[in-house]
Specification:
The complex is a heterodimer of chains A (about 425) and B (about 500). Chain A is mainly α and about 425 residues long. Chain A contains 18 helices and two strands. Chain A has a domain of about 140 residues: Protein prenylyltransferase (Serine Threonine Protein Phosphatase 5, Tetratricopeptide repeat), CATH 1.25.40. Chain A has a two-stranded antiparallel ribbon. Chain A is elongated and about 80 Å long. The two termini of chain A are about 35 Å apart. By secondary structure, chain B is of the alpha/beta class. In chain B, the strands form four sheets. In chain B, strands 5, 7, 8, 9, 10, 16, 17, 18, 19 and 20 form a ten-stranded mixed beta sheet that branches. In chain B, strands 11-3-2-15-22-21 form a six-stranded mixed beta sheet, with helices on one face. A four-stranded mixed beta sheet of chain B has the order 1-14-13-12, with no helix packed on it. In chain B, strand 12 and strand 13 form a beta hairpin. In chain B, helix 7 packs across helix 8 and helix 8 packs across helix 9. Chain B is globular. The C terminus of chain B is likely disordered. Classes of the chains: A mainly alpha (about 425), B alpha/beta (about 500). The interface between A and B is medium-sized, with 17 and 16 residues. Chain A: Belongs to the protein prenyltransferase subunit alpha family. Chain A: Keywords: Prenyltransferase, Repeat, Transferase. Chain A: It comes from Corynascus novoguineensis. Chain A: InterPro entries: Prenyl_trans_a (IPR002088).
Chain lengths: ~425, ~500
């Protein structure tokens, strides 16, 4: 699992050697790129965020999705033109009425009002079109309480939503090929999130919800392609959070998410993020199930059996040991991890820990050179002593010394650490 | 019009079996004068795929003693054969071999561009049949785990056995380098089962799992070969997608590859004549004169043909059955994102079957189940290919295996067997022969998975035909012809 030189998660990075021909073509490409960039910069220097600039950003971003300034330009193009006129109290208004008079808020509020004259595509059905018209006064927008004519407002609102929905969909589609090529580029994900936020701000909850549900599908697909893309995992959590929120008329998705970690683990045991996600979901899962002590104990039993089964086939895998340790911490440090063993007696805890140690010792029968096993045994034996508020007995001391010896042999690079442990616990032979 | 006899042919290829067809593919850009004949009215030779009518003709043909390496062929239909579809709805394969992802034939198909015309399907899990120990317990199928995640998920073996299996799987992947190499080298020629027991302390059940992965027909594959085969299986896992190690050509297995290769040969200018065999021949030092059954007399620099004289060793008994059920439970993708398999393989370990007369199966029986996705039968039906060594009451044992399988997979009503084709495939020469201007391919391999050693004689024959030009040319490497469809789809 450690990064092998030149590869990430086992997917190799290729290095290429260029011929003269390729060098020439590269220089051409660089020239074209710089030209595009200059064009965009020229436009924004003049404060122009017209659809023409929007098209240029599409071209430029396809060539370089990491150019985050251009993503911002794109956002401004949408706010200033393509998206429907903001309704009273909408996000644009919020920007102009924010307390800090930063450069971005002034430009966005100016673009909100001034572009209605400069834009080649006037937003149809905008509620303010009839009143503020071409006034460059942001205050005029904020003081217009009603849209022109109540009968029109429903129609205009519906048209606005349709327009916004179509923009949102096309923007999401635009980012997909970019994501497929650069699945870990922050700026693409951040732009998608911004678009998704626009969905919440501009669309009815039911409509916005569908967009977010599709987003969950995308997160799953990305994780299907690279199961350990931690961007995708974090993103998934964010999407799930939104889907659960009241804004999108949601309810808890803990059971589904827990089942999802099951699926990912069964596909590939060596998935740190899946195990981590699982550990984070457990407290809420048990609470929602209304689990009593017996149910929680049964749950812990099942988790322990599963992780032991995993360690049995993959003892060299660190992500498995991390999860096992999480479960052990539930036993020995319940103040931090109360979900499963809050009402265990000390005898209970000692019994469980002793059993775990015995089970792990069994692994040594067939795996005698896996250092993580010895590390686990060492650590857990010390936990046991702590639990019982005593020092290791003779047999335990002998074990600890033997395991430390193995660790020194298997992992000589960390001899300093092993020496420290030796000193700390008085284990010098 | 020029008659065939006017040309001095560079090579006459007799028979359109897989090896001969691959030779035609290899020569398809060489500009050589090639005449490719086959006494059958169909392509594929001993690797052909049949409609029901073709199968009937073939059985008649074999019964006349004209197929040197096939004997005891017969077809049986049940009394109420109502479920059987029209003849052309079927494409029953004589060589339903699965092809491991790391097999060399695939890289040859790719480099020669012939792969574009073949559709491949996924081969799913391998199962072991475990007979019921008493009448109350149903006999069942156990999936054989061959990846870490499969070993993790299975509930069929103990924790200790899982550890042994994992150690062995890791060992196999590295078995050709030290220190593992020294561990097995001294046992190279003795049976793999013995090595498993001695070195890995494996009991009977785990041994059966591993021997099944080798698809060994006598269960006695030696350590060297066994480790190589398992290594191929393990390193083939996941190559073309998650969850599967082998693929299968749609529309009849190897027959499809033979047909595609002949098509390439024809496009390259070779002349094809079906229903034409060699009546007599006269061999000179550097050419052969052939009198064909069509009446033509031709001269050729080289004759390439296949062996068809039985060697006298034990053959392989086959039963091809069509059942009236889609057997959906066998064709489920087990891994997230994996394609639905179209082929499932089931092994009946030696001793797991007995006939009514009490004869126990002395050797493993292998059953390859094909869904209608293979194009070999209509939707709603499946084709079952059973194979075992032809000893003792081979017909009885195969029938018993079929029966046991049908009852193991059905919950309520056992599906009806709509059709049975039985025959015995005899072994012939197992090496190629080059005698002056005549090159003879070895007899087809009875192996259940494609054996790369089949490809070597083809390259040998190609070198002989090409003569000096072989040194300049790259074997089986071609560019797409103009106008060839580029059907790479970006998902």
């Amino acid at each position: 699992m450690a990064d092998q030189g030149g590869s990430q998660h086992g997917i190799a990075r290729t290095s290429r050697v260029r011929t003269e021909e390729q060098k020439r073509r590269d220089l051409e490409r660089i020239a074209k790129y710089r030209e595009l960039e200059d064009q965009v910069r020229a436009h924004i220097a003049r404060g122009e965020y017209a659809p023409e600039v929007f098209q240029l950003t599409s071209k430029l971003l396809r060539l370089n999705p990491e150019y985050y300034t251009i993503w911002n330009v794109r956002r401004r193009c949408l706010i200033s033109g393509s998206f429907s006129r903001p309704l009273a109290g909408s996000s644009c208004l919020k920007a102009s009425s924010s307390t800090s008079p930063s450069a971005t808020t002034t430009t966005s509020s100016t673009s909100c009002s001034s572009s209605s004259s400069a834009a080649t595509r006037p937003a149809p059905g905008s509620p303010t079109a009839g009143t503020s018209g071409t006034t460059a006064d942001p205050a005029a927008i904020s003081t217009t309480p009603d849209a022109p004519g109540k009968e029109d407002s429903a129609a205009t609102a519906a048209a606005a939503e349709t327009q916004d929905l179509s923009i949102i969909k096309s923007e999401l589609t635009f980012t997909i090929p970019l994501l497929l090529e650069s699945p870990k580029c922050y700026w693409i994900w951040s732009y998608r999130l911004w678009i998704l936020q626009q969905a919440i701000a501009r669309l009815r909850p039911a409509v916005a919800r569908r967009i977010w549900e599709e987003e969950l599908g995308l997160a799953s697909k990305m994780l299907g392609k690279d199961r350990r893309n931690f961007h995708a995992w974090g993103y998934r959590r964010h999407v799930v959070q939104q889907l659960e929120s009241a804004t999108l008329e949601g309810s808890s998705m803990v059971e589904a998410e827990f089942a999802y970690t099951d699926k990912m683990i069964n596909t590939d045991l060596s998935n740190f993020s899946a195990w981590h996600s699982r550990s984070k979901l457990i407290p809420r899962l048990l609470d929602e199930r209304g689990a009593d002590d017996a149910a929680r104990r049964a749950f812990l039993d099942k988790e322990l059996a599963q992780i032991r089964n995993a360690l049995n086939v993959g003892p060299e895998d660190q992500s498995l040991w991390y999860y096992h340790q999480f479960l052990i911490l539930n036993l020995v440090a319940p103040e931090q991890h109360p979900a499963m063993t809050l009402n265990f007696t000390r005898e209970d805890r000692v019994a469980y820990l002793t059993r775990e140690i015995d089970e792990i010792k069994e692994l040594l029968e067939d795996y005698d050179d896996v250092k993580l096993i010895y590390e686990g045994l060492f650590e857990y034996t010390l936990y046991l002593c702590q639990l019982e508020e005593r020092q290791p007995d003779e047999i335990e001391r002998a074990d600890l010394v033997a395991w430390l010896g193995k660790l020194k042999q298997l992992d000589p690079m960390r001899n300093g650490r092993w020496a420290d442990l030796e000193k700390e616990y008085g284990l010098k032979e | 019009m020029e008659s065939l006899g006017d040309t001095l042919w560079d090579v006459v290829i007799s028979g359109t079996g897989l090896q001969q067809s691959l030779l035609a593919l290899a020569l398809s850009r060489s500009g050589k004068k090639i005449l490719h004949i086959d006494p059958n009215e169909f392509y594929g030779g001993s690797e052909a795929a049949f409609s029901l009518q073709d199968a009937k003709s073939w059985v008649t043909h074999a019964s006349n003693g004209s197929c040197g390496l096939v004997k005891s062929a017969s077809i049986a239909l049940p009394e109420d054969a109502t479920g059987l579809s029209p003849s052309r709805a079927y494409s029953l394969a004589l060589a339903p071999q699965l092809i491991h992802a790391r097999s060399a034939i695939l890289s040859q198909l790719v480099s020669s561009r012939a792969y574009r015309q073949v559709e491949f399907l996924a081969v799913g899990s391998f199962f072991i049949f475990s007979p019921s120990r008493d009448s109350a317990e149903a006999s069942g199928l156990t999936r054989i785990p061959s990846t870490r995640e499969e070993v993790f998920s299975t509930t069929a073996i103990s924790a200790k056995e899982k550890r042994l299996l994992m150690k062995f799987l890791k060992f196999v992947l590295d078995h050709e380098s030290s220190p593992h190499l020294e561990t097995w080298q001294e046992h190279a020629d003795s049976p793999l089962v013995d090595f498993l027991q001695k070195e890995f302390k494996m009991g009977g059940e785990l041994q059966t799992y591993i021997i099944t992965l080798t698809l060994s027909l006598d269960g006695q594959i030696n350590t060297r070969d066994g480790l190589a085969v398992i290594r191929r299986h393990l390193s083939s896992m996941g190559v073309y997608g998650p969850g599967f190690a082998a693929i299968y050509p749609k529309w009849g297995g190897l027959s499809e590859i033979a047909q595609v290769s002949c098509r390439a040969g024809a496009v390259g200018g070779a002349v094809y004549m079906l229903g034409t065999g060699i009546e007599t021949m006269e061999i000179a030092e550097d050419e052969v004169e052939l009198h064909l059954t069509s009446g033509d007399n031709i001269k050729t620099r080289m004759l390439v043909r296949a062996d068809d004289s039985p060697s006298g060793q034990t053959g392989v008994g086959r039963l091809v059955a069509v059942v009236g059920s889609p057997l959906t439970s066998l064709f489920e993708a087990t891994v997230e994102g994996a394609p639905r398999p179209a082929v499932a393989l089931i092994a009946f370990p030696a001793g797991s079957l007995s006939t009514a007369a009490g004869e126990e199966s002395a050797y493993p029986v292998y059953l390859s189940v094909h869904s209608s996705e293979t194009g070999e039968c209509p939707v709603g039906q499946s084709v079952l290919y059973l194979t075992t060594l032809a000893t003792g009451n081979v017909t009885g044992i195969l029938e018993r295996a079929l029966d046991a399988f049908i009852h193991a997979t059905s919950d309520s009503q056992a599906p009806q067997v709509l059709y049975r084709l039985q025959y015995e495939q005899l072994p012939g020469a197992d090496t190629a022969r080059a005698e002056g201007p005549i090159f003879t391919f070895p007899a087809p391999s009875p192996s259940l998975s494609f054996d790369d050693s089949v490809l070597e004689p083809v390259q040998e024959a190609w070198k002989k035909v090409m003569g000096e030009a072989a040194a300049e040319a790259e074997y089986m490497v071609f560019e797409d012809r103009e106008g060839a469809m580029d059907d790479d789809v970006y998902e």
